[in-house]
Write a structure and sequence with these properties.
Helix content: 25-40%
Structural class: alpha+beta
Number of domains: 2
Distance between the termini: 59 Å
CATH topology of the largest domain: Rossmann fold
Strand content: 15-25%
CATH class of the largest domain: Alpha Beta
Number of helices: 12
CATH architecture of the largest domain: 3-Layer(aba) Sandwich
Largest sheet: 8 strands, antiparallel
Number of strands: 19
């Protein structure tokens, strides 16, 4: 995905036109290739013309790109057996830049790098069968689209290719986890201005909205500066991450890999609260938690919000109480107990407000301690007898964006003291509030809005 100048496409010889047709047919109609099969070079080469190929938009045919495309695909063809069941990273030079060892990240996870520098969404679609599906992947991490933008592809065409990629992956395996990364910010200097990238990302969101197999990771907000461009300390060429950039991307992916069961499988299951504290979450299931009817105040708040803001979240109203004792997840799978963590998952519909509550109430003064971790730009909250204390990815979503000790995409400790109807709260020792009024009694709870937030080590002590 280096800076390129547009050159006319190479014209084909007849053999390549036939190859394009046969490869398109194999992509959509033939069974998955045997893990032991290794393709001949002509089967992996980039077709010289577009006729009969799936998808729309640009395919790059610069000499250097055709050479790289073939070299990497030949290398991968020889490794199909070894890479069976891997978490596959799929994309362009940003993905290729992880290297074969992923810079030491994702230890303990079987991973396979299927990034080709310069590739486009149509190129990914073209090679999907042999490079990804043939591996029977455990999950796919997808980042693609920035080169389409440089090649002046239409945003709806890029989203159309994404739709075909997702459909083909899910046709292979309906429950295949797919982490879709927002197209990273870049710069108009790289022919990738922020308005163009925002358009593609919005269309991506619309394309996968409601698809429970796709988890969207907000890597655009993670890397964008106030003007919507890439940050030079993390992307010195305004396009590719440096070591600091890859560290941020790895940290953003880690919580999702934990939720999917690839990492942190036994980390917190044996934790016990300190003397004097009682655990509110057993780490194994949602016993002691459940849904409550939506309050009149919340119903009115939701109606005002949705009437006044086109970006307002969906907010399903509940009329009955449901307790989750013995269950590992809520009915729609928004809340789940996973390896010691109470996980508020990313909603498939983008933004959806859900609230989970303790089944008991807390009329006494108390200290509540917990740890939380949020994906980039995630929005959650902690309910204290009803009112909500915002608990988010503070660095990006606020309201406290300048907490000196906040650790993005890592665990942070929240300590909340409720005394005489007033809540005092800190995050890693930094003050959040010391004057939040709360009712005399009520349950405790967590909200989900956008992104993923996890809570663990949830305990309280009566004062």
């Amino acid at each position: 995905m280096v800076r390129l100048f547009t050159t006319p496409p190479m014209r084909s010889r007849p053999i390549f036109s036939a190859l394009g047709l046969s490869l398109a047919a194999s992509l959509f109609h033939l069974p998955v290739a045997s893990a032991a099969s290794e393709k001949a070079p002509y089967e992996l080469a980039l077709p010289a013309i577009d006729d009969g190929l799936p998808g729309v938009g640009p395919l790059r045919r610069h000499t250097w790109f055709q050479k790289l495309w073939l070299e990497r695909r030949q290398m991968w063809s020889a490794a199909i057996e070894a890479d069976q069941g891997a978490v596959v990273f799929l994309g362009d030079s940003i993905t290729q830049g992880w290297g074969p060892d992923f810079k030491g990240y994702f230890k303990g996870v079987k991973v396979a790098n299927r990034g080709i520098s310069g590739d486009t969404s149509r190129g990914v679609l073209l090679r999907l069968q042999d490079d990804v599906i043939a591996l029977n992947p455990a999950a796919v991490v997808l980042l693609i689209g920035t080169n389409d933008i440089e090649e002046v592809a239409r945003a709806d065409a890029i989203a159309s290719n994404l739709s075909l990629i997702i459909a083909r992956l899910q046709a292979h395996r309906a429950d295949l986890p797919i982490i879709l990364c927002h197209v990273f910010p870049s710069s108009a200097k790289q022919r990738r201005g922020p308005e163009l990238i925002r358009d593609v990302n919005e269309r991506y969101l619309a394309t996968v909205k409601g698809n429970p197999g796709v988890i969207v990771l907000d890597t655009w907000t993670l890397f964008a500066n106030a003007a919507g461009d890439a940050k030079l300390p993390e992307m010195p060429d305004l396009l590719h991450p440096n070591e600091a950039g890859y560290a941020k991307w790895a940290a953003a992916l880690h919580p999702l890999l934990a939720t999917l069961g690839f990492v942190e499988t036994t980390t917190d299951l044996d934790w016990q609260p300190e003397p004097g504290f009682t655990s509110l979450f057993n780490g194994h299931d949602l016993t002691g938690w459940g849904y409550r009817p939506t309050s009149p105040a919340d119903r009115e708040s939701a109606r005002r919000w949705q009437a006044n803001s086109p970006d307002a979240a969906e907010w399903p109203f509940l009329s009955e109480r449901t307790d989750f004792d013995g269950r590992t997840h809520s009915p729609e799978n928004r809340f789940a107990a996973i390896n010691g963590r109470l996980v508020v998952k990313t909603p498939p519909r983008g933004r959806v407000v859900r609230q989970i509550w303790t089944t008991r109430e807390f009329p006494e003064d108390f200290v509540l301690k917990l740890e939380f971790r949020a994906t980039p730009h995630a929005d959650s909250g902690i309910y204290l007898r009803g009112p909500q204390l915002q608990c988010r990815d503070y660095a990006l979503a606020g309201p406290w964006k300048d907490l000196p000790h906040y650790r993005p995409q890592d665990w942070n400790e929240m300590v909340i003291t409720v005394r005489n109807g007033i809540a005092h709260a800190t995050c890693n020792g930094d003050l959040l509030t010391d004057d939040m009024a709360v009712p005399a009694t009520g349950p405790l709870g967590f909200e989900g809005d956008r992104g993923q937030t996890e809570y663990r080590r949830i305990r309280y002590k009566t004062l």
